[in-house]
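Consider the following assembly input.
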Amino acid sequence: MLGRRRHSRYLLAQPVEGHLRVREEVTIKKWSGSDVVVLASEPCACNERLTLEVPGPLGRRLHVQVVECRPAVTDEGAILHRCRLAILEAAADCAGPAASEP
Amino acid sequence: MGTLVRSVPVRLVEVSSGGCLLESDRRLKAGTCGLLAVPLAGLVHADDVRVARCQQVAGAGAAFNVGAELLRTRRFGRRSLRAAVARIVGDGRGVGHARPDAEEPQPVGVRTDGAGGRCESRAPPAHSDNGP
């Protein structure tokens, strides 16, 4: 790994808490009134709270909670994760999927 | 199609003008891109980052060191994380504490210069080929 770092590093005396927001494209397989089933490439932990953004002219952003996550094999042989998400509520900023990035 | 957005809690441990070292309770795949938001000096600074490496901390259970590269996809503004890092790196003065409510985050006096440099306080024990 020689030469990998080009810049001086500074160690903070006290780590600062923050958040990393990671986005992942998923395929929505089923949508009922109270829950959504999606196929994702990464597994989700049960009870984990996520945000689901649905594109389109009336883009929606929903707060969801993972109810169940099981591996699933697609027709092409790829292993994905079938996640059932309970819809908690529509996010306040549901006017557009990319409305409120800081 | 849809987009699933997950918010991963992280701790900012080290900074440089090109990237930062984070600690996380979750493994993050190398190549993962995301928006890193950190409160510094009363203001949330955010920038896109790309995970360059993720290593489990030995003996610490589910704790991972995540090396992340700061991406130049957003404007270098007041709320940019790169701007906050530039202020930390720029003064590079003495020992201090970085707290979210502090006036200005400060690094400790562990500066590593040049390629391949390492922080003495965090380096693993040196190996000896000669043996005891």
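Chain B has one helix and six strands. Ask yourself how this observation constrains the way the partners meet.
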